[in-house]
Amino acid sequence: MAHMAPNQASRKKGKKVTIENFYGGSTQGKEENEEEIQKNSEHASQNGNYQQALEDLKLELIQKMETFWKEKWEKEISCLTDKTAQLEKELEASNRRADKAEKQNQSLMTRIKHLEESEMIKQQESIKQTQIINELEENIKYLTEKVTDLENRGRRENLRIIGLPEKPEVNNKLDIILEEIIKENCPHVLEQGGKIEIERIHRTPSILNPQKTTPRNVIAKFKSFQVKEKILQEAKKKSFRYKGAPIRITHDLAANTLRDRKAWNTIFRKARELVLQPRINYPAKLTIYFQGKVWAFNKIEDFQAFAKKRPELCGKFDIQAQKARET
């Protein structure tokens, strides 16, 4: 690029304004100076307007930004406040539920404690009641056995005659019939004078049940226990008859003793088949002769335990199996 001439550069840039050329120069110089000053003034004024406008714009922008952020933050703060209030309500409700649950829990714990205490008391009472019941059962068992024994002792002079025909001519003279039975089966037992003293004799039960086909038993009470025992021993040795018909003569025992003796029937029959010489002794004791010894048993369980330990007897006295086969 070509360099500009000095006068052109001077015009382009303008003259430097000084006090000397402003006051002491020519009129043209003054005019030029005034014109230059005016231009500079306009230029400065224009720059000031731009600056002012920029400042106003910045101020307006700042105000709008403040307004925008203020509104935004007010909304955010309002939203957060609402959420905080909602959370506070939920927290309060949760606290109320927690308090209610805590109260319910405390109430349940109190009830559980009371129930546990009540259950413990009931268990203790139950233990005491069980002990009392066991003692009562033992006493009842003892008293029952005592009463049964007393009843059996009260019947020690009695004999029970089984199978005597149920006929009016027989029932009306049972004492005479008994003497005839003794004369027919064991005449040597008769006392001097050929008569046995009988305190009383009767059928049992006293009322005849028409639905039963078997005759009622006859109970005879002797005045002499020794005579009764002699007749009973003879009845054990052989079968008694009355006018050719078979009859049985046994002890007259209490109902409980008869029931206990009857429980041995199945084992008794099987023992007889095995030639163990079984016997039922007073009051309801089973005895057998096995391997050269006499063995006695008060309970069926004791006999079964004994039989299981002996190979010769094991499995032969299964009462349930025998009852099932009989059925």
What does this structure look like?
GO terms for molecular function: single-stranded RNA binding. This is L1 transposable element RRM domain-containing protein. One of its GO terms (cellular component) is ribonucleoprotein complex. The protein is of the alpha+beta class. It folds into three domains: about 60-155; about 155-250, Alpha-Beta Plaits (2-Layer Sandwich); about 255-310, L1 transposable element, C-terminal domain (Rec A Protein, domain 2, 2-Layer Sandwich). The protein is about 60% helix and about 15% strand. The chain has ten helices and eight strands. It has helices spanning about 5-15, 20-25, 25-155, 170, 175-185, 225-235, 255-260, 265-275, 300-310, 320-325, and strands at about 160, 200-205, 215-220, 240, 245-250, 280, 285-290, 295. The strands form two sheets. The chain has a five-stranded antiparallel beta sheet. The longest helix has about 130 residues, at about 25-155. The model is unreliable at about 1-20 (pLDDT under 50).
How would you summarize this macromolecular structure in one to three sentences?
The protein is α+β, with helices and mostly antiparallel strands.
Tags for this model:
327 residues, alpha+beta, Alpha-Beta Plaits, Rec A Protein, domain 2, 3 domains, 5-stranded antiparallel beta sheet, 3-stranded antiparallel beta sheet, 10 helices, rod-shaped, disordered N terminus, L1 transposable element RRM domain-containing protein, Transposase_22, single-stranded RNA binding
